[in-house]
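Hey, can you fold this one?
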Amino acid sequence: MPEAHSPLRIVLLLRSLGYIRLFDPVVRGLLARGHSVHLLNERSQYTEREAEWLAEMSDLAGFSWTLTTTLYEGPWSPMASVLRRFGDYLYFIDPRFIGPSSLVTRAEARAHSRLRRLMEVPFMRRPPVLRLFARLIDAAERSMPENAAFEKELRALAPDVLVVSPHLMPGGVHSEYIRFARRHGIPSCICVASWDNLSSKQQLREMPDRLVVWNSFQAEEAKRLHGVDGDRIVITGAPVFDQWFERPATPRETFCARVGLEPGTPYLLFVAGALFRGEVTEAEFVRDTWIPAIRGDERLADVQLLIRPHPRRVAQWAEVADNLGRRVAVWPRAEASMAMDEETRADYFDSMFHSAGVVGINTTAMIEAAIVGRPVLTVFHEAFTDSQAGAYHFNYLLDVGGGVVSGAETFDEHLDQLAAILAGEDPTSGRRENFVREFVRPHGLDSPAAPRVVAAIEGTAAIATVPESRSAAHLLPLRLGLKALMFVVRIRLARWQRANLPPGPDDERAL
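Sure. Predicted structure:
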């Protein structure tokens, strides 16, 4: 545990309450150390489980929360969103970012259509021109007046440390929080929430005083993709996975009865993900391709299959759940929330623990299955190229520690691997431990990550910060130009409001 520290006022920003499952042990750890934690949540929609968590935490001393929407409501917010989204698009198409095309496509879809068309001019994509234009867009966004309501809100909270997480989609406003902290001399910390956040989301526009990452691989991403100085980076391990170490399992008979499986025979677990959208959904692939291939192999014809839908794709699985054939269970079938409460966590853990092996396309559950100690397999399929070969972070499953996932290029190879596992073979046992040690708990398998994240946040508070000057006289021409553009926008909005289908305040058709 970290050494004693004076009580701190910590403000934690989350895009939505669903991400609290990633930081629940950190929040509880900070409260246990005597600090106060104020949660700023940007979305008002909660699942039942999330609302229960919020109610439970609200009864704990030192915890408070508010909904914040100020950065989405100011007069300059629509223009700021346009500039941020376009800036992130320029980041992804820069040749220095060697990433999959699916990420470019996603950023492009979020960028303003007229600005996208500008990038169709050939010379605009020349690296020197592209980077000059990117700096111009960044300067234009910085030239905007400060959001008075946002300033008032953050001043009232008076944080000793501002913690921002996770680092989300193109166009996100989180850089505004770090910029506020720097202007007011408040130590700031970004905690990376998941294994793909630095390689597939937005660029780091503002440098925090501390960047908390899981492992050396994320540290390298931070340096190479975002230009973060090494002395700002703290490697802690992955706190979200602490809960799966040394956890007792429910008796097999009890669990199998709960999900509708026979306890006396083995089953394979398919863990679904939140994949890039394509012509075929993962649920359709399992129904039409994966299960028929298994049933067509006499070695696997009678094996039990347990399918665990991803909470964000429950609707897709509901469409196929009753058409998967015999000896197949889908669990849970309607629970659209992450593992936050004890019952849901137990169900999730037991489904992995009691399985003979785990199969997935690309999902965090493959890491969790490795921690639990089960063989993890995948089959490379053209329908999921964007989510496998096209996802930078997926390579970690294949490479780190020698590779924690056994990947098959063909279905024949995949079926052979499944049959071998059911026969008691475990080809990844040694590599699995190496992966967990390098990727999940780099400070040792017996060293939980959450206390290290708590210590990193406490250490951030000790950093001497000096408020930065707000002077931006050199950006005045850009601000005047943006004001003129905003004047035109208001005229266009007024015209739209007289029509039958008026746009929202950030509808790009108004520009």
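The chain has three domains: 11-74+146-241+449-461, 77-144+471-510, 246-440. Let me know if you want another pass with a different chain boundary.
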